[in-house]
Amino acid sequence: MSPPNPDLRYWERHARNYDRSLFLLSKPLPRMLQLVGEAVTGATRILEVAAGTGLATATLARSAQEVVSTDYAEAMVAMLAARVAEQGLSNVRCEQADLYTLRFEPASFDAVVAANVLHLVPDIRGAITSLQRVLKPGGRLIVPTFCHDETRLSWVVSRALALTGFPGHRRFTHRSLQASLEEAGVQIKRVELLAGLIPIGYIDGVVKS
């Protein structure tokens, strides 16, 4: 039997409070959703990884024929599915999935959206490689991410969050986030820093053919 995953236990416990907990961090989210919507325009099939409770899912559903929205916490997927049903998003399918072991065929998505998750993964290179695997050549990888080391204030807030048990594994600046993607072979197309209590580094790029 695998040992208990403390990160997974955290998200199972906090699923019901997730949206409420984002209130203080929500300033960059409207611009993030606008940029994500622009990046996926014209995509036929989108994979959403670490969808949480579905804050970005409706934006994706407006732009694609099919969206597969996933999270690895069962409680998050339950809330995600409830939101999708409430919003009548008939082109969205919700599934529980581990980012590292995605069970989808290689090169099966036009775009992959992994919003605000890369700072939470223990193995950043493995995570990016897994996302790249399911993208078609030239497909779009979209990874807006909270950048905990971007400003002095975000540095302080991040360390306060850590005292509550928040399972972060790294603290990015938008430049270090970009470097991680470039080192994994992602061709960067757009970078924008979105101001907030903890800023979001919006980055998207393409998987090279």
Explain briefly what this protein structure is.
The chain has 209 residues and is α/β, with parallel strands linked by helices. 35% of the residues lie in helices and 23% in strands. The protein has a single domain, classed as Rossmann fold.
Write up this protein.
With 209 residues, the protein is of the alpha/beta class. The chain has one domain (6-207): Vaccinia Virus protein VP39 (Rossmann fold). It is 35% helix and 23% strand. It is built from eight helices and eight strands. β7 and β8 (200-207) form a beta hairpin. The relative contact order is 0.16. The model has no long low-confidence stretch (mean pLDDT 93).
CATH class category? Alpha Beta
The ordered string of helix (H) and strand (E) elements is HHHEHEHEEHEEHHEE
Give the tally of structural domains.
1
CATH level-3 fold name: Rossmann fold
Q: Which regions contain 5 or more consecutive residues with pLDDT less than 50? A: none
User: In what range is the share of β-strand residues?
Assistant: 15-25%
Give a topology summary.
Blueprint: H1 6-14, H2 18-21, H3 29-40, E1 45-49, H4 57-61, E2 66-71, H5 74-86, E3 92-96, E4 109-114, H6 124-133, E5 135-142, E6 145-146, H7 152-162, H8 174-183, E7 186-194, E8 200-207
Parallel strand pairs: 1-2, 1-4, 2-3, 4-5
Antiparallel strand pairs: 5-8, 6-8, 7-8
What characteristics describe this protein?
209 residues, alpha/beta, Rossmann fold, eight-stranded mixed beta sheet, 23% strand, globular
